[in-house]
Design brief:
This protein is about 30% helix and about 20% strand. The chain is built from 15 helices and 20 strands. Bound molecules: flavin-adenine dinucleotide.
Length: about 475
């Protein structure tokens, strides 16, 4: 069957290289992958469409790339084969005990639908990340400490398998697959078409933001980590060190922000305590009024943009959400608050001197722990139940075509950052992969769960049909992988 014949067989839309919409259809969140030219992009409208695409690819010996929200840092949702895009399977349905999510739904759309239904679900901290990748990789965010990972709340999933069959998995049906899909990584075991998730009870939230002078960065980074470790589960918080190009007055700045499932007074008292621990005052501090969960999350994720505007540029007529430039990153999970000397080393790798050459870069930390760490390590595929922080660096270039030296330069910076992170690391999170991962990456991502994951892979995808650079395989990886 030729590619065009698939067009007549699916209810959704098939975009081929000669079609006018192809250049937009192939895009991911990161512009780096605009040069990858898939055989076709299938915007599936139903589970049957997905199954037909799987069979089409298998019959023709094509690779198949599963795409949800398209946020894979390392481009694992695209390639030269057939891209199965789930973005039109994006329903959000609130039922009695669960919320059903189409696997292509973006956080901001799910929150918007649930806004009027009196339901709340956990999401990450970026508006357009898709449920498909977020939940299969683990799913961390500001609600992790209070409610656990996004995947801890998944009660069932519908999955199209490599042989074209569709199964439902849950604790009672296909339990090994259900186990693997909660942290074993996307694009590995099958195409999830729908998740059922347990809603959470979080009717109101308070958002906060503080900015700190870079001169105080070592103390703020150290104090913020201790504050987050010792703080209540209701506190969801991130810290980012921004370069001068994004700081007030052209100076680098440290931003601490997040949401709290409590009162504005509790947040103010908490921020006072953070300032006391840091021994300095922030340049600015904003504590919002308590608001509806979806409204506060929308504002924290999208600012004043409407839902339609907040979508990624190119995905709708009003969409103006930014795309990410060519980036090299190093990320690790860490198991404790860094000491002052370790914080200083982390900031050295971010390197304030790079402002002089206009290097765009971030040091990002997200606080974890709480409920996520009260789950046994082997209960789901996500093993990192002792992680307290996700910490990492991104080094970006907005004109890589005009700067031939950029890839090597950014790789060297990311490597230096990886060295700074190594003494603190207790593993890696498959949804924030480093650009360069060496050695035994399966153990890095999955710890003692890797053996069971390989067994599930053998049982459900014996021919390794669903694969990308770091999907779990049938046997241990032996070579270094560079994505
Ligand atoms: C700017 C930004 C912010 C982020 N913030 C957070 C955050 O706060 N918390 C967090 O946990 N993560 C975050 N992430 C990471 C994000 O969770 C992962 O990149 C995730 O895999 C993206 O899912 P996606 O569906 O949007 O991406 P995609 O690129 O579409 O998919 C990612 C992976 O999942 C697979 N996949 C996608 N859909 C399915 C499906 N339906 N069935 C099976 N496999 C599927 C793909 O094949 C690919 O391997 C962020 C990423 C970015 C770029």
């Amino acid at each position: 069957m030729r590619a065009a014949a698939l067009r007549d067989r699916i209810g959704g839309e098939l975009v081929l290289p000669d079609d006018a919409g192809y250049a937009l259809a192939i895009q991911l969140q990161n512009t780096e992958y605009d040069t990858v030219e898939p055989y076709a992009v299938a915007y599936c409208a139903s589970e049957e469409d997905v199954a037909r695409c799987v069979r089409h690819a298998r019959d023709r010996g094509l690779r198949l790339h599963v795409r949800g929200g398209g946020h894979s840092f390392n481009g694992w949702s695209t390639g030269e084969g057939l891209v199965v895009d789930l973005s039109r399977m994006s329903h959000t349905v609130a039922e009695e005990a669960v919320v059903r999510l189409g696997a292509g739904v973006r956080s901001l759309d799910a929150l918007d639908v649930l806004r009027t239904r009196g339901r709340q679900i956990v999401t990450g901290t970026f508006p357009t990340v898709g449920a498909g990748g977020f939940l299969t990789g683990g799913g961390i965010g500001w609600q992790t400490r209070r409610f656990g990972l996004g995947s801890d709340l998944v009660t069932a999933a519908r999955v199209v398998l490599a042989d074209g069959r569709t199964v439902r998995c849950s604790a009672a049906e296909e339990p090994d697959l259900y186990w693997a899909l909660r942290g074993g990584g996307g694009g590995t075991f099958g195409v999830v078409t729908e998740f059922e998730v347990r809603p959470v009870e979080a009717p109101t939230l308070v958002a906060f933001e503080t900015l700190w002078a870079y001169d105080d960065a070592v103390e703020v980074l150290t104090a913020w980590q201790e504050w987050a470790v010792e703080g209540p589960d209701e506190l969801g918080t991130s810290l980012v060190v921004l370069p001068g190009m994004f700081g007030p007055g052209g100076r680098p700045v440290v931003r601490v922000w997040g949401v709290h499932l409590g009162t504005a007074e509790e947040v103010r008292a908490g921020l006072d305590e953070l300032a006391e621990r840091a021994g300095s005052k922030p340049l600015s501090r904003t504590v919002g009024p308590p608001g509806g969960y979806a409204e506060v999350m929308h504002e924290a994720l999208c600012g004043s943009k409407t839902v339609a505007q907040c979508h990624r540029t190119g995905t709708g007529p009003e969409a103006e959400g930014h795309r990410h430039p060519y980036t090299r990153q190093s990320y690790r999970l860490t198991g404790r608050a860094a000491t002052r000397a370790e914080s200083a080393a982390l900031l050295d790798a971010w390197d304030p001197a790079l402002d002089a050459v206009g290097q765009e870069r971030y040091l990002l930390c997200i606080a974890l722990g709480g409920a996520a760490n009260r789950v046994p390590r082997t209960a789901t595929a996500y093993a990192h139940r002792d992680a307290r922080f996700l910490i990492g660096y991104q080094f970006a270039c907005r004109d890589v075509a005009g700067d031939a030296a950029a890839p090597a330069r950014l790789t060297a910076l990311a490597d230096r950052a990886a060295t700074a992170l190594a003494p603190l690391a207790c593993g890696s999170y498959i949804n924030f992969p480093s650009s360069r991962v060496g050695g035994d990456w399966e153990t890095e991502y999955f710890g003692e769960n890797r053996g069971r994951l390989r067994a599930v892979k053998r049982a459900y995808d014996p021919e390794d049909f669903f694969r990308h650079a770091q999907s779990i395989g049938h046997s241990a990886p032996t070579t270094e992988v560079e994505s």
